[in-house]
Specification:
By secondary structure, the chain is mostly helical. It has 16 helices and two strands. It has a two-stranded antiparallel sheet with strand order 1-2.
Length: 324
């Protein structure tokens, strides 16, 4: 088993032993259900890796990793309600399997559990961890609200979109890494640098996700290509097309995103062509490369063993090498 696989298995074993089965059953069963649906476990693995990079035992970071994963799944449970999503990781969402009220309450309980996970640490470490998690949680909520607001706006700027994906997605990756560093008693400078590495990598990852949704290989990407276009999601490609396209191309894009779903194939072909002809696709690839490089520049600043730095570099490279 490779290094990442070992860290993931360490977390999964801990998760299996610490998933609560308590009363009332209808409060805790949805939590266990969502936590065991799978996923890459990217965030808790990052927390364990960060602790290891600063020569702490990754096991010491397991409560922090659990806190990050519990918080992340809390956001998923509530996001699914807001999106009226029927499926999560191919399985029925909590609010469909139970009901909306149960999903809201179980999500609230999961958020509380995230903070309870940190109570095993010393007061100083606990204070640092909870302060970071609280700030991150607030930013994630802000990002989600921006995302909701943008659904009904046609004047969203590129900077606003970048702020949204940073807060909604990227800051939690940075948080996971910084929490592992805090557990390992890393210097304040190093823990903040590692946070920035995670944020930049998270931005690049989300931009790449936007790109691959239109131009990826569905057999490798693992999602329906064109799903964002079909759902009229205003991703980075949409914003770049508006920024770079002619007035005619801008009008055509607005027209396509206002169209009904009974002409899906034609819509996909037309919008994809606009993304290519305006240069939006190329510019998005350049942005992905830029933020990935910025992430690696932060990594170079870390004062850790070269071998540990290489592990983070390899990990960052691996998650950015999804097929297109």
């Amino acid at each position: 088993m490779d290094y990442i696989g070992k860290q993931r298995q360490l977390f999964l074993d801990h998760l299996a032993k610490n998933t609560l089965q308590s009363q009332p059953h209808n409060l805790y069963e949805p939590i266990s259900y969502l936590l065991t649906l799978g996923g890459k476990r990217l965030r808790p693995v990052l927390a364990l890796m960060a602790a290891d990079c600063f020569n702490a035992n990754p096991k010491d970071a397991l409560p922090a990793a659990m806190a990050v994963e519990a918080f992340h799944n809390f956001t998923l449970m509530h996001d699914d309600i807001m999106d009226a999503a029927p499926l999560r990781r191919g399985k029925t969402t909590v609010h469909h399997k139970w009901n909306i009220n149960t999903a809201i309450l179980s999500g609230d309980a999961m958020l509380i559990q995230a903070y309870q996970q940190l109570e095993s640490y010393s007061p100083a470490v606990f204070n640092s961890l909870t302060r970071l998690l609280s700030q991150t949680a607030l930013e994630v909520c802000e990002g989600q609200q921006y995302d909701i607001d943008f659904e009904t706006r046609d004047d969203v700027s590129l900077q606003e979109y970048m702020t949204m994906i940073t807060q909604k997605t990227a800051v939690l990756l940075g948080c996971a890494l910084q929490m592992g560093a805090i557990v390992a008693n890393a210097s304040d400078a190093d823990s903040k640098t590692l946070y920035q590495f995670g944020v930049q990598l998270g931005i690049a990852f989300q931009l790449q996700d936007d790109y691959l949704d239109t131009f990826g290989d569905p057999a490798v990407f693992g999602k329906q290509v064109g799903g964002d276009i079909i759902e009229n999601k205003k991703t980075i490609l949409y914003h770049q097309t508006l920024a770079l396209g002619s007035s005619t191309q801008q009008q055509q894009l607005h027209k396509e995103f206002a169209s009904s779903s009974n002409r899906t194939r034609q819509k996909l072909e037309t919008v994809k062509k606009l993304f290519l002809e305006t240069g939006a696709a190329k510019t998005t690839q350049e942005m992905i490369k830029k933020h990935t490089q910025q992430a690696f520049e932060y990594l170079n600043e870390l004062r850790i063993d070269a071998a540990k730095k290489q592990i983070l570099l390899d990990f960052g490279s691996a998650i950015m090498q999804r097929a297109n």
